[in-house]
Amino acid sequence: MNFIILTLGLLIGSFLNVCIYRIPRNESISFPPSHCLKCSTNLNPIDLIPVLSFIWTRGKCRYCSEKISNRYPLVEILNALIYLILYLKFSITILFIKYALLSSILIVISFIDYDHQIIPDEIVIFGIILTFILHTLYNFKWNILNGTIGLLIGGGLFLIIALVTNGAMGGGDIKLMGMLGFSLGYKYILLITLLSFIIGAAASLILIFLKIKSRKDFIPFGPFIAMAALVTIYFGDEIINWYLLKIIS
């Protein structure tokens, strides 16, 4: 079963690469078919095998030898590993399906935000619609109530931060937090808020120390929110219980 989950993650990861490239360019994710960005040759099935095609061609197009970005196998492997980790924790359940799909959405958002400093509305709307559908399959009344409160808290907190800091948080971050709040509920969205600032601060210091970014450079916050959400999905209950025990003791 682990192999099946990894394979599924790789295949969906390959599709995520299409979304990451095309959505911010307002291109269709279904047409035209996958093709080389330099010579425009349509790719054959053998060219689209996740990771393996990249290895076989040594990271180059088979038709024009144009170098292929290492990001393509990275996204595929990242998505597959996240799926496997979620499967090992939740097995085949509604929660696994929900968290796996949400994780894939967060991967797309993170890379688009990093490249273009935007979080497209259509991805956030898709996440909310998908969450609503999944809520109908399990404990509908509670999940809708919990999710609505989470949406208001998540989006509201970041809206307040944006207003107080004169736009330090973008509209995309506000909508992303609203979507996560609706998906994960009020308890988790509070933890995501805290963790996103901790992760963001640590990552920013590392990027500045390594001279990848300077103090004046804009660093998109979406990827930090996504990382905080993934940590919360997997370790959220443990972190919250640990904190509560610390308060009691």
Per DSSP, what share of the residues sits in E-state strands of 2 or more residues? under 5%
Name the quaternary structure.
single chain
Low-confidence stretches: none
Distance between the termini: 42 Å
What key phrases describe this protein's structure?
mainly alpha, 249 residues, 9 helices, single chain
Report on this structure.
The protein has 249 residues and is mostly helical. It has 9 helices and no strands. The chain has helices spanning 2-22, 52-56, 71-90, 94-116, 121-137, 140-164, 171-184, 186-209, 222-248. α1 (2-22) packs parallel to α4, α6 (140-164) packs antiparallel against α7 and α7 packs across α9. The longest helix has 27 residues, at 222-248. It is globular, with a radius of gyration of 19 Å. The model has no long low-confidence stretch (mean pLDDT 89).
Could you give a quick summary of the protein structure above?
The protein is mainly α and 249 residues long. It is 71% helix and 0% strand. It has helices at 2-22, 52-56, 71-90, 94-116, 121-137, 140-164, 171-184, 186-209, 222-248.
Present the secondary structure layout.
Layout: H1 2-22, H2 52-56, H3 71-90, H4 94-116, H5 121-137, H6 140-164, H7 171-184, H8 186-209, H9 222-248
